[in-house]
Amino acid sequence: MSKNSELRSVIETTAVVIGSFVAAVILIVLLTKDYSSNEPAAEKVVDASTTEPVAQVEVDDQSEGSADKVIDAKQIIAANCAMCHEGGLMGAPKIGSEEQWAPRIAQGKDTLVSHAINGIRTMPARGGNAKLSDEEVAAAVIDMANAAGANF
Ligand code: HEC
């Protein structure tokens, strides 16, 4: 009987000890959660800002890909062709000049496009930007020619 009561008190003591440990652990977990909900929140913002540029790079890649699909001739011209064709540098036919473009346009769309892609005399291939696709160069040629009276 005394062994039983000893056992009981041991079990009770153990239960109390375990119970208080569990309570302490729960308290600690709750307290750490409260703190961590504030601190790591700030850390997460930092993490986000360090990962954001990577995400932006991916977005940039995608927008480049979509730029290939949706060709913006005006943008291509502004970035690659206007430097010569706006002011008529080195005798480049000026954008919007029907007089200067008329003999060029008379060669036909395909010839003009192939001259722009491959270059002709002082006109550099692809306006000097090898990254431009045939479609992008063609869109720029068509836009410039149409701005000077063509109907491509
Ligand atoms: C470095 C200056 C320069 C840049 C940049 C440039 N061009 Fe030219 N381009 C010229 C010159 C100069 C000529 C006239 C060449 C000639 O007929 O002797 C010309 C002529 C042309 C012609 C007429 C070709 C023909 O057969 O008569 C087309 C079309 C043309 N360029 C399109 C473009 C396009 C599209 C771009 C941009 C992607 C571009 N060019 C960028 C200088 C430039």
From TrEMBL:
Keywords: Electron transport, Heme, Iron, Membrane, Metal-binding, Transmembrane, Transmembrane helix, Transport
Domain Cytochrome c, first and last residues per copy: 68-148
Coiled-coil annotated residue ranges, if any: none
GO molecular function: electron transfer activity; heme binding; iron ion binding
TM segment ranges: 12-31
Protein name: Cytochrome c, class I
Species of origin: beta proteobacterium KB13
